[in-house]
Amino acid sequence: MRATARGWTAVWLVVLALVQAAAFLAVWRVAVHLEIGQWVDTVALTGNRIGQDTIDGPVDRILNAMSVVSLVAATATIGFIALIRGRIALAITATLLIAGANVTTQLLKYGLSRPDYGVDPERAAVGNSLPSGHATVAASVAVALMLVLPRKVRAVGAFIGAGYAAAAGVATLSAGWHRPSDAVAAYLVVGVWAALAGLLLLVTQREQAEIAPGDAHRVAALVLGLGGVLALVVCGLSLSWLLDLRGTGPEELARRPLFVGYAGSAAGIAGTMAVVMALALTVVHRLVPRVKG
């Protein structure tokens, strides 16, 4: 029974990695290599000017708090939490998750091409910006923190971490630093690395480890997942409404469609992060058992 449970957990993690990798490829293909995808992204980015004066302060504080120094400090803190719990393998794995996701994002950002369809001439010279480095930092730290926290506060950490990472992704859109697809792609990169980290934890897990089904955070994962799916549905409906206006340049659109594009994309960013965190939360009790043996 023990071997069978571990086998099914491994299968679930492989499926998660493959599904999220496929979702990343779909986002990249549609948002970067299709003209309509670039148009929707640009409409959302153009809509960030609505109410920008009101949210400039909070947005700047969120984004300016992210740096190489803060990432190193957060990683060290996460590793320390795992070590004081006596989980050496967990400390190493959480560190690898953060490092792997962020290195992958930088390699993809500079390795992927972005064709110019004339949709966004103002930013054409910038080239590819997918995935977002800031969103990757926030999401990787959030998921790694959820992994190392004790089971009693893990669900709370998952909600706070998902909220923080989602806010960081929306902030990059609000500041005009990134298109919405950049943040969504970043979360999917982190999701793939979270699944790979889970496989590593499973491989290094001792046979004496005590897996308690009661430690599963089913309600928290369900709330996060359903909330994320609902936000993605709102995003899909908003962006599908915009498609009727696709013959109009983003700068020529009225305030209402710009706001719909911006708000719908923000919902998509938040929804993706919630789903990624929910998927990780569903299996974490099997990867970080109550008694390590």
Automatic annotation (TrEMBL):
<feature type="transmembrane region" description="Helical">
    <location>
        <begin position="259"/>
        <end position="284"/>
    </location>
</feature>
<feature type="domain" description="Phosphatidic acid phosphatase type 2/haloperoxidase">
    <location>
        <begin position="90"/>
        <end position="198"/>
    </location>
</feature>
<feature type="transmembrane region" description="Helical">
    <location>
        <begin position="156"/>
        <end position="178"/>
    </location>
</feature>
<dbReference type="InterPro" id="IPR036938">
    <property type="entry name" value="PAP2/HPO_sf"/>
</dbReference>
<feature type="transmembrane region" description="Helical">
    <location>
        <begin position="184"/>
        <end position="204"/>
    </location>
</feature>
<feature type="transmembrane region" description="Helical">
    <location>
        <begin position="90"/>
        <end position="112"/>
    </location>
</feature>
<dbReference type="InterPro" id="IPR000326">
    <property type="entry name" value="PAP2/HPO"/>
</dbReference>
<protein>
    <submittedName>
        <fullName>PAP2 superfamily protein</fullName>
    </submittedName>
</protein>
<feature type="transmembrane region" description="Helical">
    <location>
        <begin position="216"/>
        <end position="239"/>
    </location>
</feature>
<feature type="transmembrane region" description="Helical">
    <location>
        <begin position="62"/>
        <end position="83"/>
    </location>
</feature>
<keyword id="KW-0472">Membrane</keyword>
<dbReference type="Pfam" id="PF01569">
    <property type="entry name" value="PAP2"/>
</dbReference>
<feature type="transmembrane region" description="Helical">
    <location>
        <begin position="132"/>
        <end position="149"/>
    </location>
</feature>
<keyword id="KW-0812">Transmembrane</keyword>
<keyword id="KW-1133">Transmembrane helix</keyword>
